[in-house]
Amino acid sequence: GDDGDGDGDGDGDGEAASSFGLKVGDRVAYTAFVGSYARYSLVPLSQLVRIPDAVTTQDAVACMTQGLTAHYLTTDAHADLLKAGDWCLIYAVGSGTCRWAAQMAKLRGYRVIGTASRGKAVEATGDGACDELIILDEAAGGKSHADYSSIDVVHRVMEITGGEG
Q1: Structural domain boundaries of the chain?
Q2: 10 Å Cβ neighbour count for 73?
Q3: Region 124-145 average pLDDT
Q4: Contacts (Cβ under 8 Å, ≥6 apart) of 29
Q5: CA within 13 Å, CB half, 159
Q6: What's the alpha-carbon Rg for the chain, to the nearest Å?
Q7: The pLDDT of residue 122
Q8: Burial per residue of 25-60, b for 16 or more beta-carbon CB atoms within 10 angstroms, e otherwise
Q9: 162 pLDDT exceeds 90?
Q10: Which pLDDT band, with edges at 50, 70 and 90, does 108 fall under?
Q11: Average pLDDT, stretch 20-48?
Q12: Is the pLDDT at 20 greater than 70, yes or no?
């Protein structure tokens, strides 16, 4: 794995840690560091992010890769193609990264259409990030995998957007 968390035990220079806004005992998270499946990891200070008290460790670690990916996709990747008020289609909004992306797209002023399997519809609508939700049937075999052949997504998007797409 390359995401992780821990309590800053510190083996180094407390002054150096403070220059990164950290101190021994802080809860920290990190990403892009191979070796997080280990019980202990020696991670450079520059890769650590202090976890605020109001944030759970689980949310902080999820944010490190899922949140950063969603942020990149909603701000940098083809950012010049969308502006506030435009429709944005995000597949699988019941999943981690795509749910974050829907929330971030909404914050940027996009009108969000999400897709989700019937089994993930509750998670997909729980935070109000989607203006419209296209619910797909479950794929054979269950496990909340969406069957994208169960509905004509393009047709449904055209209906929702009044033909704008």
Answers
A1: 3-55, 77-160
A2: 18
A3: 78
A4: 3, 4, 5, 48, 49, 51, 57, 60, 61, 63, 64
A5: 9
A6: 20
A7: 67
A8: ebbbbbbebeebeeeeeebebeebbbbeeeeeeeeb
A9: yes
A10: very high
A11: 77
A12: yes
Token duo for residue 142: 């269950």
Specify the pLDDT at position 30: 82
Count the residues in the chain. 165
Give the other-Cβ count within 10 Å of 152's Cβ: 12
State what percent of residues in the chain have pLDDT above 70. Answer: 81
pLDDT at 90 over 80: yes
pTM, entire model: 0.73
Q: Long-range contact list for 4-13, CB < 8 A, 24+ apart?
A: 4/29, 4/30, 4/31, 4/33, 4/36, 4/41, 4/43, 4/61, 5/29, 5/30, 5/51, 5/57, 5/60, 5/61, 6/40, 6/41, 8/48, 11/42, 12/45
CATH fold, domain 77-160, is Rossmann fold (3.40.50)
Residue 134's H or E segment, with its range, is strand 132-136
